[in-house]
Amino acid sequence: MKTLVCVKRVPMTGGRIVLTEDKQAIETKHLGFAISPHEECGVEEAVRLWEHHGGDTVVLTLGPADAQEQLRDSMAIGIARGIHLVTDGEEWDPEATAGAIVEAVRADEAASGPFDLIFFGNESADSGGFQIGLRVAHALDRPCATGLKGVAVEGGVARCEQEEGGGRDVYELPLPAVVTVLEGLNLPRYPSVPGRMRAGKKPLDASTPERPASRLERSRLVVPEGESKQAEVLGHGADAASAVVDLLEQIGVAS
Amino acid sequence: MNLVLVEHVDGAATDVSLQALTLAAGLGGETHALVIGPGGTAAAASVPAAVVHVAEHDALDAFAPDAWASVLCGLAEQIGATAVVAPGTGRATDAMARAAVRLGEPLAANCISVTQGDPLLLTRVRWGGSLLEEARLHAGRALLTVAPHAVAPVAAGAPGSVETFTPEIADADLVVRVRDRVAPPAGGVSLADAKVVVTGGRGVGSAEGFVVVEELAGLLGGAVGCSRAVTMSGWRPHTDQVGQTGNKIAPEIYIACGVSGATQHIAGAKGAKKILAVNTDPEAPIMSIADYAVVGDLHEVLPAVSAELRRRRG
Question: Any idea where the domains of chain A sit in the sequence?
Answer without folding.
Answer: 2-207
